[in-house]
Model the fold of this input.
Amino acid sequence: MTASGSSSSYFDEGAGYLVRPYAITGGRTHPDGSDFTLITLVVTSASALSRDRQAEQPELTAILDLCWERPLAVVEIAARLDLPASVVKVLCGDLLDKSMISVKAPSQEAGAPSVELLERVIHGIRKL
Done:
């Protein structure tokens, strides 16, 4: 699926994937040198505009188009392109290697509840 919502030539509604997802990544299952999580934010860099994007594979161009206006999480990109998240991670790794995107890893501290809060929750559950 492309950023505009039209179906990719790789996917057929009735048959499913016409090209195996690992073929899109050249058989790779992990991004080279990058550690992407499902909630890693991806944004298209300004340098991506100056490159010839027609030479890129369609999935890479779709990711660049999706992430131009606002950062998107890897899982959001996967959902919009109807690709497995593992494939999107590899493709994002390729784009990062080419400096066509920038990423913001999620903060480890920001989403984690405090130990005190967890202890109070456990204590409350035990009272039940």
Summary: Residues 1-7 have pLDDT under 50 and may be disordered. The helical segments are 21-24, 58-66, 74-81, 85-97, 115-127.
